[in-house]
Amino acid sequence: MTELIGREFELAALRAALAVCRLVTVTGAAGVGKSRLALEAVACARGGPRQAAVRVRWHDGVPVGPWAPAARIARALDAATGATGGHGAPDLASAVRSLPGGGLLLVLDDVDPVLTECAGLVRSLLRDVPALRVLVTARRPLGLGGEHVLRLGPLASDAPPGGRSPAAELFHALAARQGRREEPDHGAVDRVCALVEGVPLALELAVAQLADVSVDGLADRLRGGQCWLSAPGTPLRRHRSVRASIGAVHALCDPAVRTVWRRLSVFAGAFTEQAAVFVCEGAGLSSADVPPALAELSAVGVLRALGETGPVPEPRYLMARAARDFGAERLAAAGESSAGRARHARHCRSTAVVAETLWNTGLQQQAVRLVRDALDGAGELAGFLGHAVRHPVHAETAVETVLHLWFWWAAQNRGAEGAARLLALLPLLPEDSPLTARGQWLAGWLAADADSATARHLLGLAWPAAVLAGDDALVGRIAHAHGTLAWKRHDPAAAAAYYRQAADTVPEHAPGGPGPMVSLAALAVVQAHTSPALAARTARRALAQPAGCHDTWATALAHYARALADHRAGRTGLARRRAQRALAHLGARLDAPQARTALRRLLHHIDHGRPDRATRPPGPPRALPAAAPAVLGTSRVR
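The structure corresponding to this sequence follows.
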C-alpha cells in the first residue's frame, strides 16, 4: 500500500473507535478512500489483543441474495484457517469461535450492494460471538444499535499559507510515484484539486492523465466536467473512471431517486428542499417523492447538507461536482435538459421576485437574508447567473432576476458585482427585448461611481427607450443616476436638478428601483453644502413620504441627509444625536452596509472635524468606494 496522506486525524479516530467499540462503520461518498483507511487501521491494529483479521470485500458483479454475504464470509474464514469443508450461514458463529487467538476483527468492505443482508448478519454474529469486532465500510451506516459511525469526507483542497493542502500533497505523491521528476505548477495543482473537490479517487485518475496533458491543460479540461477521468487496469471496474464510480452509486438507487438526482443536476450551487420540489416534480414524479429522495442522496454522499437557513429553518443541500456532472449526462440522455433548465430559471426568477416583494413591503431584513443565502458563495442564484452567461437561451430570465435584486446591489455595497453581471448579460438579449432599457439603467447607476464614461453611455442608450415607452419610473431613475454623475463631476447645480426631477417623476411604490424618498435624500445632501435650511426642509419632506413607514433603508438615507444639513448649519450636537439615533434604528432592523457606512462617516467627521468646518464652502465631492453605487451622490462630508 502507498502512504496514507492527509488522514492522520481520521486514522487516529478510527483506531480509537476500534479499541472500544464492537461495531465501527466508516461511511462516505464514492472514492473518498474508505477501504484504504480501513486497511491502514487494520495494519496498525496487528499485534494487539485481536490475533486475527479477516477482510471480505464485495467486488463488481458479486451475486446479491439472502445468503450471499454469509457465503462470502464463510469462504473468507475457510481461506484464513485453511479449512476446506466450507460453512453455511448458520455455522458462521461456530466458525468464528473456532479461530485461534483471543478474538477476530471482521472487516466487511464495500458492502453497499448487500447492506441490508449484512446488517442482519452482523447483528446475529455480534450477539452470538462476544469476542467478535466488526469494521464495515459503506456509503451509509448499517443502522444497528451500538454502531460507531466515522464519516469520511474528501481531502481538504484549501492550501494553508505557505504550504500545500492535503489534496495537493496526494497529487504530488501520486505524480512522483509515476516517475514524474518535474515539479508541477502549484497554482494549477490547487485548481485541479479544487475542481475534483479533493476526492482521492478522482485525484488518482487525474494524475494518470499527466502523460498526455499538462497540469494547466488538465485543469482547463476539468472545468467542463470530470466524468471522463479514467485509468485502465485497476482491479475494481468502478474505480477505473469517475463515471463508473458514480454510476455504481446510481445503480443502487430506486427509479424515483435516480429521477430526482438527474433533475437536481441543474443546480450549480446550494438549494433548499422547496427549490428541489419546484424543479423536480412533474413527468411521473410527485412532490411527495422529492424529500425522501433528498434524504437518500444525502445518505450515500451525492448531496451534502449545509445546515438550515431562513426565517423558517429549511435545510440547504449541495450536490457533489462529480455527481452533478453524472446527473447532467443522465438528464441529457433522458431528453430533459431543456425542461429542467427552464424550470430552474423560473425558480431563480421567482426567488428574486419574492425577495423584492419582501423588500418593498417592509420585510427588508428577510429579503436580505433570502438573497444572501441564494446568491453568496455556492448559492443557487449565483450558479444560475453564471450558467446564463454561457447559455444565452436563459439570458432574459437572468437579466430579469438581476433587475429584481436592485436593492441588493445598492444597499449591500455590491454595485460593481451587479454592474458586471448586467454588462455580461445585456449583449445576449434579443434586440427587441423590453428588458434592455431597464438593464442599461441599472448597470449605468451601479457603474456610476467606478466608471463614469460607461455609466453615461448606458444611460444615454436607456433614455430614448424610456421616453418612448412612457415609463415614468424608468425616466425618473435615469435622472437620479445622471444626478450621481453630475455630483461626481463637481456640478452640484446639475445634480440638484436631476435629483429633483427624479423625485417628482418616479411614482410612489413603483417596483424595480429606488423610490422618490431616495432621490429626495440625495437632493438634501447636495443642498446641504449651499443651503442647510433648504436641505433640512427637503430631508423632512423625504421623511414624510409614505415609504418612510416601511422602507428602513430609504429612511436611514433621509436621516443621514437631515443630520448632514444640521451639521452644515453648525448644529453639531443635534446632528450627532440624529445620526446616532438613525444608526441605532438601522442596526436594529436592517443589515445595510451602504447606509451604515455613510452614517458612521458622518459621525466620525462630526467628532473629529474642526469647529468651523461646517461653515466652510464645500470642497470637491467624493463618491462612495468603488465597489458601491453612489446612491446618495456622496458618502463623505466636506
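Residues 208 and 231 are 6 Å apart (CA to CA).
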